[in-house]
């Protein structure tokens, strides 16, 4: 028996567990399917790409994507304490104020959540803002300015527009996950139990009240009762567990229906990237303690938009897809779409497993926007032939002389920002309680009605902080 059971020890779950320890007298059971973060590659910002399809990655795959060359896309998701924060690029982005105002949910406007971001930034999650970037990164920033994009010294101050040096969740040259920052200092707390290798199979109910969870470690089954259960398993894991537990669209549920909620698993959103790759005859050097991505820009694909819909990321390495080839010395300007119109679905497979269909590029406007993003990246990349940052001799390797719409469909990849599958308004309320049941809340990126404009990690931390506020002022 525990007062609180938190399912998922990732970005949100670690924050929720710490907050409940700090602000209640209750006992907390945290269940994580992965292990502790002992892989050295997790902590070295330069080794991020080694973690994909590693034991710390769920290695999720989509169904074939009709509008992306019928390809099966890899969706890296963390299976380790720290979750996807242990796999990502460590980029600290609040999102655009219009995102939160656009959600239309009481208590979730920009005026409501901005103080939470300030709490995060002044609390355990230290933010790295001052550093010396790779020389090629400074050259990219200069080239973007010559292309007419203004320099923005702080894209988190409410105005995202422009080219910027990134802010990072890095401390002392190491990745700073919420597991390290929030959970690490309290691992020995007498009211906290952390179970790793815990695969949660279903939620337990008495009528429509969630009374606990059932999980396995190896071949052994376990159960725990709880006063309140908090799902923080992410935009893929949280709807999957709801569906397995009888909460979702009734015709799609394999077992008894606890609550008929048609929108569970729907509204799957993500951000999308298309590689624009340059090689150079000047050696690209890398700064220890920083990831390969150090600058980015926020821009508009067309006039009249309420905020930026593009966020190209700049990497100091050539990020070739498996079908590509080229020299190891170069850089990538990853054309990024952060306001996609395409939405997909997470559903149950006949065996109880997952079917993930993001329906990437199913809306033609998303292709249009990415074509504009690629064109912008090409302009910036070609600007590195010369300029104030020195001679780079940049040569475009990809896309090269191809039809851009075809190239976008052939090369689009995830930006690792799945969201929206347990959205506020349709699946949970503004208090994050699941509709139709009691004793159950969701606190992770799945509750976003629309994915925010930018990296989703820090907004997920904000959601977790907000969840603790709600649980300690509005108990179940």
From TrEMBL:
InterPro entries found in the cross-reference section: FAD/NAD-bd_sf, GMC_OxRdtase, GMC_OxRdtase_N, GMC_OxRtase_C
TM ranges are: none
Family, similarity comment: Belongs to the GMC oxidoreductase family.
**Recorded coiled-coil stretches:** none
* Domain spans labelled Glucose-methanol-choline oxidoreductase N-terminal: 234-248
Which PANTHER family does the record match to this protein?
CHOLINE DEHYDROGENASE, MITOCHONDRIAL (PTHR11552:SF147), GLUCOSE-METHANOL-CHOLINE GMC OXIDOREDUCTASE (PTHR11552)
| Cofactor (UniProt) | FAD
Pfam families linked:
GMC_oxred_C, GMC_oxred_N
Q: What is this protein called?
A: GMC family oxidoreductase N-terminal domain-containing protein
Q: Which organism is it from?
A: Saccharothrix mutabilis subsp. mutabilis
Would the keyword Flavoprotein be found if you checked this record's keyword annotation? yes
